[in-house]
Design brief:
With 281 residues, the protein is mainly alpha-helical. The chain contains eleven helices and three strands, in the order H-E-H-H-H-E-E-H-H-H-H-H-H-H. Strands 1-3-2 form a three-stranded antiparallel β-sheet, with helices on one face.
């Protein structure tokens, strides 16, 4: 019976397992983001939390303990300076695990393990994109798509500041889930993070607005005079209809109001139809 035996074995000996986890923790502290299996990410996060706590203590005993664990000596100064300052006010929770996909071959679940508030914070990027899309959808409620393309969505940073002061159920331009994620991301960040997330949201709005314009320009280019010349010459490499940029599965177009379940079931590419009272009879 396996009573009182904690943690994972990874089908390795204790020396091999400990060295593997030390290597993963060292890589995490060095690069601040690593991609590994979900099981290894959970055990690596548990040890990384303890090592960062040693860096926050910043005394001779903690330095010797961290020195005996970390495999690369150049990572030690980063632990006792950069990470100790970054997480000085954060009482734990220095790592975050994102479930990605399954590995080709053995179908093992893959996860992204990262340190929170790192320069390439994955959650910050995704939250900024969610903020940008929802601000754009709110603008499309009151303006036409052509008007929004011409005017754009202004003052994303101001909207972020307003959302940070609201509670979970207050009505605003963002969904409660997006507002809660935004407040979590910004809880221990400074003023510069407001500018960063506002810029990222504005950039994503411009990307969404530029996509239909780019598609229209490419279609016009395909229908220009070169199209007729290529047809007359019988060019075998000629493409008659320029392919439309496909939308990712589950992503609604700007102004889309259909439920997510319909989009997942394939309703993204076809318009909604009204079914009569006896349509299924």
């Amino acid at each position: 019976m396996k009573h009182g035996v904690a943690f994972r074995k990874f089908s390795r000996t204790s020396s091999h397992r400990n060295l593997m986890l030390r290597n993963l923790v060292t890589s995490l502290l060095e690069h601040e983001q690593i991609r590994t299996t979900l099981a290894k990410a959970k055990d690596t996060a548990r040890l990384a939390e303890k090592i960062i706590t040693l860096g926050k203590k910043n005394n001779e005993t903690s330095y010797r303990q961290a020195q005996a664990f970390i495999l690369k000596p150049p990572v030690l100064p980063k632990l006792f300076t950069t990470f100790a300052e970054r997480y000085a006010n954060r009482p734990g929770g220095y790592t975050r695990i994102h479930r990605l996909d399954n590995r080709f071959g053995d179908n093992a679940p893959i996860a992204l393990l990262e340190l929170v508030d790192n320069p390439r914070d994955f959650k910050l990027e995704m939250t900024a994109r969610a903020v940008g899309r929802e601000l754009l959808n709110e603008k499309l409620r009151w303006d036409s798509p052509r008007g929004v393309i011409n005017s754009g969505v202004q003052h994303a940073e101001t909207a972020v500041v307003k959302e940070l002061n609201l509670s979970g159920f207050d009505s605003s331009e963002l969904r409660p889930t997006t507002r809660r994620n935004l407040q979590k991301v910004m809880k221990y960040r400074g003023r510069e993070a407001l500018t960063e997330i506002g810029a990222k949201a504005s950039a994503y709005i411009e990307t969404i607005l530029a996509k239909p314009v780019a598609e229209a320009k490419m279609q016009l280019r395909a229908d220009s005079k070169e199209k007729e010349k290529a047809r007359k010459r019988g060019n075998p490499n000629f493409v008659g209809n320029f392919p439309v940029l496909p939308a990712r599965a589950g992503v609604a177009s700007p102004g889309e109001t259909r439920p997510a379940m319909q989009l997942v079931q394939g309703a993204l590419g076809r318009p909604a139809r009204w079914r009569g009272r006896h349509a299924l009879a």
